């Protein structure tokens, strides 16, 4: 497959939207993750003064911009196949830059071996052939020796449905949505990320699991509903699939307004490139 066809297929495989609703969803999603994790960079990661950080699949740049404010001495670069949801370049802080890059293609030569830390989050809908190894390989190329990789995903097999009213609360639609997600299951490649990273020469690759925070469940449920509505919008107009998904979203939304919520565990895989 040529690089141009790889880029095209990667772009077409993204079934969510890039409009203002999707941008708002991504920014809220980042806020929820930040509240639940309590960090942007995992505490085991060390980046030297005047270091360099890359955020791949940066989306709106929310993670990158927050890190840039926390570390004004650090050069922070964002990469995505599309920058449609990111701020205009002329509005970016002086220590931030963004450029288009397809993670399935080798990184530009001038960027190889330049980063102290690379971050990537929630590319489960982009990974092709249930195999993260090609992405890990290209991310490793960006890193300096001893540089850190942090890959954040969710494990839909580790989820809960709750109601503020306890067992008497209505959660039928929420349970159905949760079942659809669990039915697909967490792709094996997510749970195998530490092994995949080790096979590419990373040291001390470990997965850290973060359980849902009750105080964040309402907001994380709204984020998930936004994703489902975007998926519904991608279905053929007038199709039963589209109608079913839209009805499910509204039914879940109705239950959520009465206190129902879904929480999904987050998994953070961290490894360090060998010398």
Fold blueprint:
Layout: H1 3-12, H2 20-37, E1 52-56, H3 62-70, E2 75-80, E3 96-100, E4 115-121, H4 133-142, E5 143-163, H5 172-184, H6 188-191, H7 193-199, E6 202-210, H8 217-233, H9 240-257, E7 260-273
Parallel strand pairs: 1-2, 1-4, 2-3, 4-5
Antiparallel strand pairs: 5-7, 6-7
Helix pairs in contact: 2-8, 5-9, 8-9
Task: Name the features.
single chain, 275 residues, alpha/beta, seven-stranded mixed beta sheet, 39% helix, disordered N terminus
Describe the structure.
With 275 residues, the protein is of the alpha/beta class. It contains nine helices and seven strands. Helix 2 (20-37) packs antiparallel against helix 8 (217-233) and helix 8 (217-233) runs antiparallel to helix 9 (240-257). 36% of the residues are buried. Mean pLDDT is 93; it is low at 1-9.
Count of separate DSSP helical elements = 9
* Strand order in the largest sheet: 3-2-1-4-5-7-6
**Rg over C-alpha atoms, rounded to the nearest angstrom:** 19 Å
Largest sheet: 7 strands, mixed
Poorly predicted runs = 1-9
Question: What is the straight-line distance between the termini?
Answer: 32 Å
The pLDDT mean sits at: 93
Helix and strand content put the structural class at: alpha/beta
Write the H/E string, N to C. HHEHEEEHEHHHEHHE
Number of strands: 7
